[in-house]
Specification:
- By secondary structure, this protein is mostly helical.
- Helices cover about 75% and strands about 0% of the residues.
- The chain is built from seven helices and no strands.
- The protein is globular and about 60 Å long.
């Protein structure tokens, strides 16, 4: 009988703890949902895949939120969870090659007023980025969002120096792919 009372009390405390976490989690996601959208757009081709990945990332963020200790910025933690979830999803999709590919519809972008070839250049660049490895995509996305090398290193889980090396190699890869289209 004593065990049941203790167990019941623990369940009530756990419900109260989760109830207190909910508003803070919702605020965090509402404020920084752009991070999740960017990662989903980088790793998924179709709107359906992006929605599924978005939901999976939210689930993983919620599961990990209780144990988030604040040793890094919330956004850094969110990027790390989102990228790890996306990379896992990417690996699953890659095993099913019939579902993997880059849709031409995804590259139908509005052109810039100053440059009539802007849409075509973006299309080429997105296709080039689509050809990168999963880790290279993550690094270049963070770099293009102007994250520091230290932030990228923390999110991706490599050293700061390795980030610099990777970025230079990625730039060279992208240059080789897009240069013929821009000459």
């Amino acid at each position: 009988m004593q065990v049941e009372v203790i167990f019941s009390k623990q369940k009530a405390e756990k419900r109260e703890f989760v109830k207190d976490l909910k508003p803070a989690f919702i605020r965090l996601i509402t404020t920084h949902q752009g991070i999740i959208h960017k990662v989903c757009n980088m790793y998924c081709d179709s709107p359906e895949e992006r929605r599924d990945l978005f939901q999976e990332i939210l689930l993983q963020l919620w599961k990990g939120y209780k144990s988030y200790q604040g040793r890094s910025k919330e956004t850094t933690w969110m990027y790390r969870v989102a990228l790890n979830t996306s990379i896992s999803n990417f690996r699953k999709r890659k095993r099913r090659p019939e579902e993997f590919g880059i849709s031409e519809r995804e590259f139908q972008l509005a052109s810039s007023e100053g440059d009539p070839d802007h849409a075509e250049k973006l299309k080429v660049m997105y296709k080039a980025i689509g050809g990168l490895s999963k880790i290279e995509k993550a690094i270049i996305m963070l770099y293009l969002e102007e994250h520091s090398y230290d932030e990228i290193a923390e999110i991706v889980g490599i050293t700061r120096n390795h980030v610099g090396v990777k970025i230079n190699r990625i730039k060279q890869k992208l240059k080789k792919v897009v240069q013929p289209h821009f000459s």
